[in-house]
Amino acid sequence: MALRVRPSSCISSFITLKLQSFSITQRLFSSIPRPPDDALSTGLPSLQPSYDADLISKILLEHHNPFHAMESSLQLNGIALSSHLVHQTLLRLRNVSKIALCFFLWAKDQTHHTHDVFSYNLIIDILAKVRQFDVAWQFIIEMDQNSVKPTSATFRVLIRRLVSAGLTRQAVRAFDDMSCFVEKDEDSDDFCYLLDTLSKYGYVKLASQIFNQRKFKFDANTKMYTILIYGWCKINRVGIAERLLGEMAERGIEANVVTYNVLLDGICRRASLHPEDRFERTIRNAEKLLDEMRQRGIEPDVTSYSIVIHVYSRAHKPELTLDKLRTMKDKGIWPTVAAYTSVVKCLCSCGRLEDAEELVLDMVKDGVSPSAATYNCFFKEYRGRKDSNNALRLYRKMMEEEYSCLPDMHTYNILVGMFAKLNRMEIVQEIWDDMKASGAGPDLDSYTLLIHGLCNNRKWREACHFFVEMIEKGYLPQKITFETLYRGLIQSDMLKTWRRLKKKLEEESTTFGSEFEHYHFMPYRR
Hints:
- It is a single chain.
- By secondary structure, this protein is mainly alpha-helical.
- It has helices at about 10-15, 50-65, 70-75, 85-90, 95-110, 115-130, 135-145, 150-165, 170-180, 190-200, 205-215, 220-235, 240-250, 255-270, 275-295, 300-315, 320-330, 335-350, 355-365, 370-385, 390-400, 410-420, 425-440, 445-455, 460-470, 480-490, 495-510.
- The longest helix has 20 residues, at about 275-295.
- The chain is globular and about 65 Å long.
- The model is unreliable at about 1-40 (pLDDT under 50).
């Protein structure tokens, strides 16, 4: 069974809907609760259930072409906007930047609505995610001019996206420019965020350089050193991390359990565990660090044990993982979902699915709810065995209303790739629809897996449709996707189809609707 293919929407076809199909009235949106102030006080707003935001985002996603003039005034006529509704709608449109921006601009022009700082933070995050940093800066300046003062959270959003794009120097400049827009000077927390973001994305050398230049201005503390220790461990430079721990002691800065856990994770996480002597050396080093913690009066906690369990799991030592789990319980340290998941992963990868299922039941008895990551361990094993029946059984069980654990984006992608490869396209359609309904995706990986699966099954019409759809949503295909589709179309004597697709990509990457004309957009290119 082939996937259902819907024709692209355009302005004329949308107008023929005449709004009857989607009757949104003032009454429907009149009872939207505002979230408590503390819910939005740190970082970006969180995704919350909202029927109204679901409906608006669905209309926009299904009937708005982001490369032409915005029809939002037609689509959303009669809506009583609130800040909460804007936040939740933007969160649901976070993966389709142009549509999100169209909605944001439409909402900004409404008479009785003024965007708050959190709405601006969301749109800045959405645009910076697709590397539209010039436009993001325009919004920061616009905030300042409209008396919506940017906060440190605004700059944290921008800094994180700049670093993730590899623009580290621009990120540091954004940090330095913060004081020109924010009503307070940069403090220790802001500095820690900059160091942490650089370290998490692998730029610990730059983070260390900045730390050494400014550590006296911000008064170096345990948190700053812990961040740098994490960064060096992340790039497998444990020796430098250990020297930093020694430097802390020399400066009279006390390490805490988090510091030791970060170093313990660095010792264990990336260590090669094969052959056997490397595994044993890693465990010896880990035990040595745990002994040092105890000597300094710091008792290992649940995270410490979870790290060691993860080492046993990576080494495929199911009995040792189960033994360490029992040891934790004997010491009165109750495992977290991460610890249980490491053991489940080990059991699944060793083919002991029944034991893994029993352990999940034990989790629930202990009051620990399995996460999507826990069930992904089963899905990966089913994928390796090509066991579509059990994978589908578990997936549908997760989708039951009374079930407390919903699939995450990784779950959907595992299943889309698995069933596409097995040519079970009716199941792919079911999963794809569920993924869209949940608001989790699809993302770039979803489209890539689906298009490659369709190409492998020689379903060129469907592959071309989803290739265009991903481009229209602002996801530019990876090089391998280009090559795979190109080879398939050439071999099938469909060169004209490929030329049309390539032309569309070139046009859409540089074409923007009239509502974007005041913003300095860069072409959407990979």
